[in-house]
Amino acid sequence: MIAFKIEGRIKYKALVEQYVASILRELEIHRLKRPCIIITFRNTLSDDRLGLCVGDEDFALIEVARFSGNERIPYLDMMQNLAHEMVHAKQFIKGELGYNSFGDWRWKNRNAGGYRYKNQPWEKQANKLENLLFQKCFPTNQLRGRAR
């Protein structure tokens, strides 16, 4: 089973671990043995991003912001951001997304450095799947009765 580790401050860590395991199954990368995913929850990220994923076929590093500016990001929004970044982790691990020898983006073995952010095919895929993954994989029934 693919190894993952959750770092940083986050409520209901066991719930998040269950959520990540469910996303890994849904993305069909749960049985891979080589890669490792490290997920870190940080107060803020550079450029006021909500999430970030970097990696290659051996690992993925995911960062999820807890605040945007001075505003706390709602817990369920953080979980949806995590789903988005997990799609990118899958893209790196499966070799769909990476970097060419010049440090530009590579998407499905083609140079892809010229795309605007909103037109990047890997972002389109992550945007398309994040809500589906969140709705299917997040155990909202376990949050009932807890402060959100």
Describe the structure.
By secondary structure, this protein is an alpha/beta fold. The strands form three sheets. Strands 1-2-4-3 form a four-stranded mixed beta sheet, covered by helices on one side. It contains three helices and nine strands. The longest helix is centred in the middle third of the chain and has 19 residues, at 75-93. Helix content is 34%, strand content 25%. The chain has helices at 13-26, 75-93, 121-137; strands at 3-8, 36-42, 51-55, 59-65, 67-68, 71-72, 97-99, 105-107, 110-111. It is globular. α1 crosses α2 and α2 (75-93) crosses α3 (121-137). It has a single domain, classed as Collagenase (Catalytic Domain), CATH 3.40.390. The protein starts with a strand and ends in an 11-residue tail after the last helix.
SSE blueprint and pairings:
Elements (H helix, E strand, L loop, with lengths): L2 E6 L4 H14 L9 E7 L8 E5 L3 E7 L1 E2 L2 E2 L2 H19 L3 E3 L5 E3 L2 E2 L9 H17 L11
